[in-house]
Amino acid sequence: MEKIDEIIKEELKDKADLFNIPEDMSERISFQIQQEQKERKSKMFKMNKKKAVLLVACVVMVLGCASMAAGKVVGIVSHSSNIPTYTQYSDLSKAEKKVGVTTYAPESFTNGFMFKGIYVAHSERMDEQNQVMAEYDYLELEYKKDNTRVMLDVEPYDTITGEQDFYSKTEVNGVNCYYTTLENKFVPLDYEPTDEEKKAMEEGRLNIGYGTDEIETSISMQICWLVDGNTYSLFYMDEEPVLAMNDLMKMVEECIGK
Amino acid sequence: MEEKEIVVRMQNGDEQAFYELYERYKDSLFHTACLICGNQADGEDVLQETFVTAFYHCRELKKPEMWKYWLFQIMRRKAFEVVKKKKREIPEEKIIELADENITGQSELEILEQEERHVIWKVIEKLPIKQKTIIILFYFNDMSVTQISKIMECSEGTVKSRLFLARNRLKKILTEEIPDISKSVV
Questions:
Q1: Which residue from B31, B48, B117 is facing A29, i.e. has the nearest CB?
Q2: Chain B closest CA to A50's CA: distance in Å?
Q3: pLDDT in tens, A94-134
Q4: CA distance A185 to A207
Q5: How many Å apart are CA B168 and CA A210, to the nearest integer?
Q6: Terminus of chain A with fewer CB atoms < 10 Å: N or C?
């Protein structure tokens, strides 16, 4: 070893000695791991739960993309509990009053879907500077038939106007309804979307959700409509769909006709 | 217990094994990260992120015997991200200030050598990040060219070439900056 090698070696050692590892570093690491585990469990739980609140993620994705294009709302953060706020249909008016909406929600649909519960959720709509543009509570109504769930969301906010580009349009009982079918892919945190997937996401055909251990796919369908400034959204998601868009459209007819 | 066994235990969900490995590697990783990033705060962040990432992705490591290189690879990537993101100047003055506190009582030759080393550090700091990291891994961590190539994810030839260039640059600067000392030591 030449003298210069010794000098470099000594110099690096001297510099390194000036840095001291904090005593609480292992606690910091442990804390971060615990926090991330909680977040991951929460993500996984939400996925299993409903596929119930994931629906929110999908709505966020679709509307979020549209909003990006419009240069207005660029992010939506939604929270809802995994426990229904109300489990009796007779509490519907109480829930409506709490949030300030009229849901026109039936107790059951003619295709056999039955009311199961009401979740009071919270939504924040953010602009490009991450500033909250609007913040409000809304209702998620859960309907179930066998193991299949359908959710009806009612928000006291117009999330449709200016966001229709990603939807097909039809009319039900004189009300404009916007509908879309979306492919959902849930992937591990380090997943990198392909160019094809990026294009599909831009076009609003694909939603990628992060946080699963393995890749999972599902299909979701959504129909939105606006009444008195409130947004109504019927949502269904399944790995192997047993409902078609027509089935959902008939359920919407029952809501609008109520 | 052999390190490989501890890694396997960790991969099977044994948290104690994870912290055993943390104890084994925290110092070398932390000091290497600080040297690459140039400051304590970023070194701490890199160390923390390295172990959190290792915790969550340890099952992806197919060869447990490669744990050390895999861990250093994570640290190197995290450190590069920090350096690229912040492009922060090294708090060199602070380091020199701290070093100067120990000058009293030293012989002229020692003081001269210390001055020489500051020059060396300044040059190391200004090296391109890949050259700088190779210098640190080679001289500070006593790693071989083969080991460094695994961490840097490049060929041994590339490591040799970068090491050669960096060393020559350091030698040249040292000769120019402190010719008297250089004559005797280089």
A1: B48
A2: 26
A3: 999 999 999 999 999 999 999 999 988 888 776 665 567 78
A4: 6
A5: 47
A6: N
CA dihedral A43, A47, A49, A54 (to 10 degrees): 100
Tokens 């109300």 identify what position? A86
Q: What would the pLDDT profile of A186-234 be if each residue is shown by its tens digit?
A: 877 677 889 899 888 777 788 777 666 678 888 889 899 999 899 999 9
Q: Which two tokens stand for residue A16?
A: 């390194």
Instruction: Find tokens 């490989």 and name the residue.
Output: B4
d(CA A25, CA A18): 17
- Residue linked to tokens 């510099």: A15
Is the CB of B57 inside 8 Å of chain A's CB atoms? yes
- Report the amino acid identity of residue B109: L
Write down the residue that tokens 């922060």 correspond to: B88
Q: Nearest 5°: CA angle at B184, between B181 and B186? A: 90
Chain B CB within 8 Å of residue A213 CB = no
DSSP assignment letter at A257:
T
- Dist. CA A20–CA B44, nearest whole Å: 9
CB pairs under 8 A between A and B: 87
- Side chain identity at A111, as an amino acid letter? N
Task: Decide if B186 and A16 are in contact by the 8 Å CB cutoff.
Answer: no
| Residue A237: both structure tokens together | 């998601």
Which of B139, B176, B180, B185 would best serve as a mutation to test chain A binding (most A beta carbons within 10 A)? B139
DSSP track, chain B? --HHHHHHHHHTT-HHHHHHHHHHHHHHHHHHHHHHHSSHHHHHHHHHHHHHHHHHHGGG-S-GGGHHHHHHHHHHHHHHHHHHHH-PPP-HHHHHHHHHTT-TT--HHHHHHHHHHHHHHHHHHHS-HHHHHHHIIIIIS---HHHHHHHHTS-HHHHHHHHHHHHHHHHHHHHHH-HHHHHHH-
Contacting residues of A for B90, CB less than 8 Å apart: none
Contacts of B31 (CB under 8 A, 6+ apart): A16, A19, B43, B140
